[in-house]
């Protein structure tokens, strides 16, 4: 079983809303707002990855991205960024910033909401799995 945690209060350099919205503002996009349903979906994915000890959009049978969208009642345009091995929000953000596909999710003009979560496995308690979900 993984250790879970919706992301708590942040120092300014670790606040995901500030990090993402600064990027969006610099690129002429409107801000994103945190969304509890997306946080639950992100937590589910982070837990699945930590339990399986792998980073993938489909960790096990029946848990693909589209199925998880349905499970959490999310409709319309959506995206997902994943990574692991980074211990802070800022470090995960930097991974996504340096990947064209992940960066485009953070800048996608139709997205208005996001949810971020992390999880660890008891087998590797210092190795953090991150998931961030986006929707219109």
From TrEMBL:
SUPFAM superfamilies: PR-1-like
Protein name per Swiss-Prot or TrEMBL: Cysteine-rich secretory protein family protein
Residue span, SCP domain: 19-131
InterPro entries the UniProt entry points to: CAP_dom, CAP_sf
């Amino acid at each position: 079983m993984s250790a879970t945690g919706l992301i708590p209060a942040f120092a300014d350099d670790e606040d995901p809303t500030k990090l993402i919205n600064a990027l969006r503002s610099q690129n002429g996009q409107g801000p994103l707002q945190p969304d509890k349903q997306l946080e639950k979906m992100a937590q589910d994915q982070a837990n699945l990855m930590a339990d399986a000890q792998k980073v993938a959009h489909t960790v096990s049978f029946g848990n693909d991205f589209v199925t998880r969208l349905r499970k959490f009642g999310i409709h319309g345009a959506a995206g997902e960024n994943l990574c692991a091995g980074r211990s802070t929000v800022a470090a995960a953000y930097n991974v996504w910033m340096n990947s064209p596909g992940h960066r485009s999710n953070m800048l996608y003009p139709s997205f208005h909401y996001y949810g971020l979560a992390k999880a660890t496995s008891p087998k590797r308690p210092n190795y953090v799995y991150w998931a961030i979900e986006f929707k219109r």
